[in-house]
Specification:
mainly alpha, two-stranded antiparallel sheet, 2 strands, about 65% helix
C-alpha cells in the first residue's frame, strides 16, 4: 500500500467521502482522534490500576514520595527478581508516560510499543499480581531489619450454625492507623449502650463477614472497573 493510495483512495472510500464529503470528514476526524488518544488512554488506565492496587489513593507529591519510600524499603529484599524490578521502578516513579510504560513493560515481559491486543489484558492482570507481591514483600520487610510498612490481619468465623468458615487476609498501611483508630472510636461510641458483650460480638462478626465478602471478589472483577 502506497501513501498516495491510502490518502486518495482507501480513506475516502472507507469513510464515504466521495458521496458525503462533510459527513465522511467528520467520521474520519473522530477515528483519527481515537487513534491519537489510544496510547495516552491506555497508559492512564494502567497507571490507575497500579496506584489503586498499591493503595496510593489520591496521586500527588506527598503520596508519590510515600510510594517511593515504600519501594526503597522493599528494593532488593523480596527474593523475587520481578518484585525487585517493580520496586526499583517505583523507587523513582513519577506520574509520567515513561514511568508507567516501564511498569507495563515489566508486567507483560515486552516493551509496550511492541504490544498486541492480548498483551493489554495480560498486563492489566500482571500489574495487579505484581502489586500484590510488592505488598506481601512489605509485610516481610522486618525479616531483613527494615521498617515494616504494612500489617496483615486474618479473621475466621462461623455463623448461624453453618459449617462454612469465612477467612480473609488483608493488609493496611502503617500510616492508616489514625484513620483506623478514628473508625474504632466511632463504632465504640455506637456500641457502648449495649450491655451484652455477646450481642456486640455477634453483631461485629456478622458485619465483619459482610465486609469480608466485599473484599473477597476475584482480582479480575476489580480490573473490570477500569473498563
Amino acid at each position: 500500500m502506497t501513501p498516495n493510495k491510502l490518502i486518495f483512495d482507501d480513506i475516502p472510500t472507507l469513510f464515504d467521502m466521495y458521496d458525503h464529503e462533510q459527513k465522511g470528514m467528520d467520521a474520519f476526524s473522530v477515528a483519527l482522534e481515537e487513534i491519537t488518544n489510544a496510547y495516552p488512554d491506555l497508559l492512564t488506565k494502567l497507571g490507575q490500576i497500579t496506584m489503586s492496587e498499591l493503595q496510593v489513593g489520591i496521586v500527588n507529591k506527598a503520596s508519590l514520595k510515600r510510594l517511593r519510600e515504600r519501594a526503597e524499603n522493599v528494593r532488593q529484599s523480596s527474593g523475587d527478581f520481578r518484585i525487585d524490578a517493580l520496586a526499583a521502578r517505583l523507587a523513582t516513579f513519577e506520574e509520567t508516560e515513561e514511568s508507567i510504560s516501564g511498569i507495563a513493560g515489566l508486567a507483560a515481559n515486552k516493551p509496550i510499543h511492541d504490544w498486541i491486543d492480548l498483551d493489554v489484558d495480560r498486563a492489566c492482570i500482571e500489574i495487579a499480581v505484581l502489586c500484590q507481591g510488592f505488598k506481601k514483600a512489605e509485610l516481610y520487610a522486618r525479616v531483613k531489619g527494615k521498617q515494616q510498612n504494612r500489617h496483615a490481619i486474618s479473621l475466621m468465623s462461623g455463623l448461624s450454625g453453618q459449617e462454612q468458615v469465612h477467612q480473609l487476609s488483608f493488609d493496611v498501611l502503617e500510616d492508616k492507623k489514625p484513620e483506623i483508630n478514628q473508625i474504632k472510636d466511632q463504632v465504640s461510641k455506637l456500641l457502648i449502650k449495649e450491655s451484652d458483650p455477646e450481642l456486640v460480638l455477634a453483631a461485629l462478626t456478622e458485619l465483619s463477614v459482610e465486609y469480608m465478602n466485599l473484599l473477597a471478589n476475584p482480582m479480575i472483577e476489580r480490573l473490570d472497573n477500569y473498563g
